Structures are given as C-alpha cells and as structure tokens.
Amino acid sequence: MSSRTRLVIPWLLTGVSVAIMCGLGFWQLDRMVQKQQRLASIAQKERNGTLSLEEALSVDDPQDITVSFNGALDGNHVLLLDNQIHNQRVGFDVIAPVFTNAGWLLVNFGWIPAPDLARTLPEITFTSEMREFTGVINVPGINPLVKETNMTLSQSPALIQHIEFPALSNALERKFLPFILHLTTPDPAFIREHQAVVMSPEKHLGYAVQWFGLAIAAAAIGGFAISKKGRSYE
After folding, report:
1. What's the pLDDT tens digit per position in 14-40?
2. Beta-carbon neighbour count of residue 232 at 10 Å?
3. Cβ neighbours of residue 166 closer than 8 Å, sequence gap 6 or more
4. Prior bond of 157 cis (ω within 30°)
C-alpha cells in the first residue's frame, strides 16, 4: 500500500465522522425549532380556553386543545399501556374507550404504579356510565421499535405496548378518533402530569452544541494525527 493510500483512508474516515456529527447537530437544531413552534402553539391554544369536543375537532390541528364534554365510558374494555415511567418507577397508563357525540375516543385516566416486579396487572374497575371529561387532546407518538403483541383484548384490563388505532379499532370492533384525551382534573387514584413537550428547546440546543463541538474536536485531532503520520512517510 502506497503512502498516499495510507493517508486517504484516515482522511476519509475522519471526514465521514465529522459529517455524521454535524448532521446530528443540525438535526438537534431542527428539533429545537419544532419544539419552539409547538410551545408557541400550546400557549395560543391555552389562551383560547376550554372548548367542546366538536369545536376542537373542527380546527385544523386539535392537538393540545383543552376540551370538556360528556361521554359514555366503556368500563368493560380497560387498557393498560405498558412500561410507563414516573419518578423512576415503572407503571401503566390507564386508558378506556368513551363514546362521545363525535365518535369513540380513547381517554387516558393517568398513571398508576405496577403492583410488583412480576408483571402482575393491577385491578382496575370502571362503571360503564355517562361522565363529564375534561382534558387535553394529544396525538400519541409512534415508536417504530415497538411491535404490538397483544391485540386480542380478551380480558379487562388488557395490556398493550403502544397505541395503534387501526389495530385497536379492529380488536374492539369500533372506529376510534385518531387522538387521545389526557384527563387533567385531579383524581387521587391516578397521577395526571401530562407533558406535551418532554424535552425543552434549550436541551436540544445544548445537544447541538455538543455535537458540533465533537465534530470540531474530531476534525482537529484527526487532521493533526494524519498530518503527523504523513510527515513520517516523507
């Protein structure tokens, strides 16, 4: 292998590493802008006050709107969203279908701790009845790494790994609105601390600065090491 080839490969590896780090930095900056826009949208919607469900669904983007409505709770099909963490404790989000004037809507009642470490499911008992619901509309995120394994829902409560509206609609034989309502009224049986934005824009900016700093360091160290090695071949 010639001395020229010995230098090309390290330069290529250094360039690829720097490009990847810069790409991650720009991705974090893009996430920062998205979070800033989301927070501005939330602030605007909070100023509009509480709407009815029909009013909220009539706008282009009902996410993060606070709504209040009456609906019929289906207490026979309670869902437990698995692996939900609160204060470093593992637990479940308790979700149940509610029939509203706009159709079937999944309502998140809040978080409860897991009874033990043996994957025992907690006992949840709801009465199927008309109730008043007040909460914030949310669009659940999609985790491509999670694949649903339980959609028979033959028992209540039933354990699920993520919210997949088409699969839940098929399993429960009803069409759901593509939203989740996170209840905000206090209830001693549940912990309700819905956070629309978990990571702040400032944190994304901090991560971007770190990635750009690593890219500069990699370029400097790699360039110095390769140049020094190149001189040794002369």
Report:
1. 889 999 999 999 999 999 999 998 888
2. 7
3. none
4. yes
